[in-house]
Design a protein that fits this description.
The chain has 6 helices and 2 strands, in the order αααββααα. It has about 140 residues and is mainly alpha-helical. The longest helix has 17 residues.
Length: about 140
């Protein structure tokens, strides 16, 4: 459902949040290597998050990225909105242009329920909650 860019953005911002210690930035190469993301591609994605003020970019030796907002206030929907836009939650499940409640595709009503659950999840889940799950050993974030 999400683009590779959006998946990478979600994984990277979670990784940055988990690995920031004493306000020391997390390096681009460290993020890319740990998540299996091409460096150049990741750089472009993270710059979008910097532009929208979710991250701060620090240049030079010891530079990298820091979260610029409180993780308990950052909801996943904000990241998805920046990278993919929210229209992905309104698209037809099989790609028809004229799919609607009045002219449904074969999976329209079932897929509509799934999309609403995903929309709800994105609006409710915070970055802090994801970090807590990782720290509690309930989930993982590293690619390797």
């Amino acid at each position: 459902m999400f683009s590779k860019s959006c998946e990478y953005a979600l994984r990277s911002i979670l990784y940055i949040t988990l690995h920031t210690k004493n306000d020391q930035a997390v390096g681009l190469k460290q993020i890319a290597d740990s998540q299996g993301i091409p460096l150049h591609f990741l750089s472009k994605i993270l710059q979008q998050l910097v532009k929208h003020k979710l991250l701060t970019s620090i240049k030079g030796p010891g530079g990298g990225f820091l979260l610029n907002v409180s993780p308990d206030k950052l909801r996943l929907v904000e990241i998805v909105k920046i990278i993919d836009g929210l229209d992905i939650l309104d698209r037809c499940g099989i790609g028809l242009k004229k799919c609607s409640d009045k002219t449904p595709c074969p999976i329209h009503f079932d897929y509509k329920i799934v999309k609403e659950k995903i929309r709800q999840l994105l609006q409710e889940k915070t970055l802090s909650e994801l970090c807590q799950d990782v720290e509690d050993g309930k989930s993982i974030v590293s690619y390797k």
